[in-house]
Amino acid sequence: MVLTRRAGIKLKYIDKEVELSNELSSLTITDNLSGIIDSIEFVLKNNNNRLLSKENELCNGEKVQFELWTQNWNSVEEGIKIYPLGIYYIDTRSFDNERGTFRAMSIPGGDSQDEVNTKIWGEISLKSLNEEFANKYKISAYFNSKDNPLLKDIKQENEADLSFLKKIAEEEGFNFKINVDKLIMFDIEEYEKKESKYKLNLNNVTYSIDEETKNLYTRVEIKYKRSKWLDEERAEYSLKDFGIEIPGKVREKTLKINARSKSSDLKKLAKVRLFKENRGRVTLSTTIVDKIDLYSGDVIEVINAGIFSGRYMIKKTTKKLPDLNVKILAYKIWEK
């Protein structure tokens, strides 16, 4: 029976599977909650220029898949555990005498999605819109929500596909991200209600907490006029209308929006935009040891943090291997 803690990383590339434990200098995975394409950077040893040979070449545009394995990491009875680290497409590569550095993105084509396009939809559900763009890029679509808003009269006008899709999703209160060969949409408010995945004791970590009230909005005002012949649509809501009480003295500040909800729900648009602008009010940064299975979108419970104790949503993780640590950036979830 193997009693020693062990860990390693495997790379799957086309029809090859390579154990990288002795070849890897570093591997950094960045996982974002919203908008930004997830990426990975890995550095391999280039002994005797081995990475320049045809046999060992990792080509731009090709798919790579990583997984972390551990053996008896937390206990002698644990055995081998596998942690998938994602699927990526090599975007850039560079070499010197000592190393080869590769950067890969979680969607084919990397920055080619910056090309602008124009299209009009008369009526389409948000789920179907996500599927349409996923099919365009030949990847999967993932949609997780009790609701599926029906969008009317939407127009993509000289906009990049992913920027347009992110904008439409966020207007309806959905989070949009690209990860592991998927276009992902989920209701951010539903996710904030999930059970916490991990209990973080601030007495046991080095951390920083930032609170900002300068850009805190307490009210939202929406105005929209469909045409010069129709009356102006108008709605006003405050945080109190959505069950939020802010402790302490806070200056009243109004978020003004000249837009309409694509699903014609002004109250939902007001709540979505007000919560979106205020989600960064309290943020927490820390590094957690031996917790590689934390991801953006996970909820954690923070204890021994005084007035800042409570539930937090992870918005970004950075994992640097072979150390089994994860750096997180999380925001405090509104308490009703």
Which helices and strands occur, and which strands form pairs?
Blueprint: E1 6-13, E2 16-19, E3 24-32, E4 39-45, E5 63-71, E6 80-95, E7 99-105, E8 116-125, H1 126-136, E9 140-144, E10 150-160, H2 161-171, E11 174-179, E12 182-187, H3 188-192, E13 198-201, E14 207-211, E15 219-224, E16 233-238, E17 254-258, H4 266-278, E18 282-289, E19 299-303, E20 310-321, E21 325-332
Parallel strand pairs: 9-12, 13-19, 15-17
Antiparallel strand pairs: 1-2, 1-5, 3-4, 3-20, 4-7, 5-6, 6-7, 8-10, 11-12, 14-18, 15-16, 18-21, 19-20, 20-21
Task: Write structural notes for this entry.
This protein is mainly beta. About 10% of the residues lie in helices and about 45% in strands. A hairpin with an 8-residue loop joins β5 and β6.
N-to-C SSE string, H for helix and E for strand? EEEEEEEEHEEHEEHEEEEEHEEEE
Overall outline: globular
In terms of DSSP E residues, the strand content is over 45%
Number of strands: 21
How many DSSP helices?
4
Global Rg? 23 Å
Share of helix, binned: 10-25%
Low-confidence stretches: none
Main sheet, how many strands, which sense, barrel? 13 strands, mixed
**Helix/sheet category:** mainly beta
Instruction: Please tell me the overall pLDDT.
Output: 86
- Termini gap: 51 Å
